[in-house]
Design a protein that fits this description.
Spore Coat Polysaccharide Biosynthesis Protein SpsA, Chain A, 11 strands, two-stranded antiparallel ribbon, globular, alpha/beta, single chain
Amino acid sequence: MRAIAVIPARLASTRLPRKMLREIAGKPLVGAVYEVVRFSPLLNDVIIATDSDEILQVCRRNGWKAQMTSAAHSSGTQRVHEVSNSIAADIYLNVQGDEPLTRPEHIATLIDVMQDSSVHVGTLKTTASAADITNPNAVKVVTASRLVCLPQTRVRSLCSLARVVTRAQRTPRAVAVLGERNSNLCGRYALRHDWN
């Protein structure tokens, strides 16, 4: 199975301006993420998908593979889809550009979930802390029976529907989304090429 990780990276972050180029451990955040994702031996390629010429130039100077994508995209998922139209793979892992703590075992878990051909989208989740449940910046995912993912949100009101989890703590478990596409996934997730 050919697997490609795509790291969407836009410069126009609203909550933290220029987030992708802010330094972490002496490197731009997007580069720190790229380098940890490259550690996975299961990936055929890693590509930074950006609409910023400035990010593209930083990537080229550092030897990080990058591709320009449309500035009209409203989500990282759309950037991943654009990359999927030009680079062939069986699955595409969307690794958020602000996830420098991504580990090879996260990627391995996602790829393992995607081995099941009935799974079209897979994501990772962890149990939410009490503070995250009320935090509007923490993306929450609610799962129903059989670990089917319900729409993801930053809104607290969904917390009463089922167990709430976020992407930020402890060792994540995989959640398989069966059947339909969900374009609002968080953190790290995988898509089949035929997901749309």
